[in-house]
Amino acid sequence: MENTAFVCLDTGTVHWVSADIEMEDEVPDDIETSDRYLAIPDKRDLDLGRKLALRFADEQLPGATRTVQEFFGHPGAYANFKAFLEDQGRLQSWYDYEANAIEHALREWSQEHGIQVKAWPSEKRR
Questions:
Q1: Is residue 107 part of a domain?
Q2: Parallel, antiparallel, or unpaired for β 37-40 and 3-8?
Q3: 71 and 27 within one domain
Q4: Is the pLDDT of residue 126 over 60?
Q5: pTM score of the predicted model
Q6: Which contacts (CB < 8 Å, 24+ apart) does range 81-88 have?
Q7: Same domain, 98 and 68
Q8: Domain residues for 57?
Q9: Which residues 6+ apart lie within 8 Å of 39 measured at CB?
Q10: Is residue 118 situated within a structural domain?
Q11: d(Cα 99, Cα 7) in Å, to the nearest integer?
């Protein structure tokens, strides 16, 4: 648990816990043991890592799926993937695609856990 966020199911307050960064706000002592707090999933928990990059390649980069797959068989996969996208002029498209996928996954996760979010990032951009 290097960096984790928890949502308080009673108040909706989000608490950030970091092993590396001193946080200004005090974190409740029972945050990891109480059923009042729910850990907010990260990209890996929501399956938004390698599979998302491969799905992007399938949908947005015809003929490049094999190249992208090869990146993820070696260290530095995301750096290589992003450099490739930059060369293809598709890096911003990736960032937009990834942001939309993350928001969609978090919306589903929130609904599954009965959490109402006041405003999503995409709603703020409108």
A1: no
A2: antiparallel
A3: no
A4: no
A5: 0.78
A6: 81/53, 88/61, 88/64
A7: yes
A8: 50-102
A9: 4, 5, 6
A10: no
A11: 21
Same domain, 55 and 98: yes
Distance between CA 100 and CA 120 in Å, rounded? 11
Given the structure tokens 């060369």, which residue do they identify?
87
Q: Tens of pLDDT along 48-92?
A: 989 999 999 999 998 999 999 999 999 999 999 999 999 999 999
Residue with token string 């850990």: 39
Tens-digit pLDDT profile for residues 22-43: 766 788 889 888 999 999 998 8
Half-sphere exposure of 35 (CA within 13 A, CB side): 1
Tokens representing 39?
Answer: 């850990």
Say whether both 34 and 54 belong to one domain. Answer: no
Query: Which is more confident, 124 or 42?
Result: 42
The answer to the question of residue 30 being in a domain is yes
**Residues 7, 5: Cα–Cα separation, whole Å:** 7
Q: Is 116 domain-assigned?
A: no
